[in-house]
Amino acid sequence: MSTGESDALVFFGATGDLAYKKIFPALQAMVKHGHLAVPVIGVAKAGWQLEQFRARAQDSCAKHGGIDPTAFDKLVSLLRYVDGDYKDPTTFQTLRKELGAAQHPAHYLAIPPVLFGLAVEQLGKSGCATGARVIIEKPFGRDLESARALNRTLLSNFDESNIFRIDHYLGKEPVQNLLFFRFANTFLEPIWNRNFVDSVQITMAEDFGVQGRGAFYEEAGTIRDVVQNHLLQILANLTMEPPPATDSESVRDEKVKVLKSVPPVEVKNVIRGQFRGYRNEKGVAPDSQVETFVALRLEIHSWRWQGVPIFIRAGKCLPVTCTEVFIHLRRPPPVYASAPPPNHARFRVSPDVAIALGALAKTPGERMAGTPVELMVSRHPSAQEMDAYERLLGDAMRGDATQFAREDYVEQAWRIVDPILGTVTPVSEYQQGTWGPPLADQLIAGHGKWHDPIVDVSKS
Ligand code: BG6
Fold first, then answer.
1. pTM, full prediction
2. Which of 17, 165, 168, 322 to probe ligand 1 with, by most ligand atoms within 8 A of CB?
């Protein structure tokens, strides 16, 4: 049963890093846009009082986007704070009191994954789960088995329609635009299949390292951190069938359907890398085998995609920060050019947004020779654009689950990467500022080369 608009927002992990960097600024933006006017209760164990919590909110907004005086004052008037340990039932009893007349709170768990189960059980026992929603940060489990166990705990305290599993990539405009662009235009559909597409590449490159999150990264690695969630979500948007309707379940059914057609990734199709220097990071084992780079190949065994290899690549300390999808179309037959380059479609998700179609056009002159060109729509994120967290928290509080991962989706995504988690494949060192271990190039042999995104730093 869905519960209408949430009448309070509780966020656990209120003194943490995510709250500081993302959540307070998102809350201020929600207030500014008229999307938040209910009590916001922070919960954490820091020995703080409300005043310290408010000061943290102020510092966070000032450092991340700036204070909007009117919206910020309103936000401050909505803030409440509960200090306590998640193991202690009193914390949750105090929370229940603080919720007062609220009947349909949304509980947002911005806390380390090991605490998810505990917090959910305590919410249930204290009565705070009654009529409520729960919003869970990623990573959702660390493999298929633990994700199933977490789903069981959640489902024994909340109805699936009241569970919102966050993948902040789904809150990004360009990720939503992948779906929109495909299904709002006619020209892509005829070529969007195995008859025209030679291969698909998805690259998520970051030019920085683990930024002090060494201990977290040791538990995650690139496959868990971004492939199982962000990049498979991009893949689903890119390859799913058109939904019969745009309600959340029709859209999510199609995403699950396409993932069901993906066999588990084979060990022979994975290259893992680790940037030189990772082992010196705080919280990282001196002999760590955790990957900070991965390149992998998978396939979709469906009528539309059978035989089209999908190459996914992600890593830290690469030459640029950019997420981009590159679709190689099949080569045209030779008429004017003896070996015409394949056409392509390119979707850039970040840092700027671009949709481009690559073609060959005649070079001016006597000869019938060609020059590669791109027909491109491009823009820079505007100030009006909603931040992913603003969008997702607002959606969850309204009960719109479209941009959240459903139970079966999360389990399918884990099923696909489960055989390649951990150390079943070796990890090779790579130089910082390069595109990972050279072995990654062999993976793609036969389907051209990796398309390395170029970022114009003067514009970012
Ligand atoms: C997070 C990962 O989910 O996504 C990080 O844990 C990664 O390692 C981040 O850097 C990238 O997100 P964005 O929105 O900055 O591209």
1. 0.94
2. 168
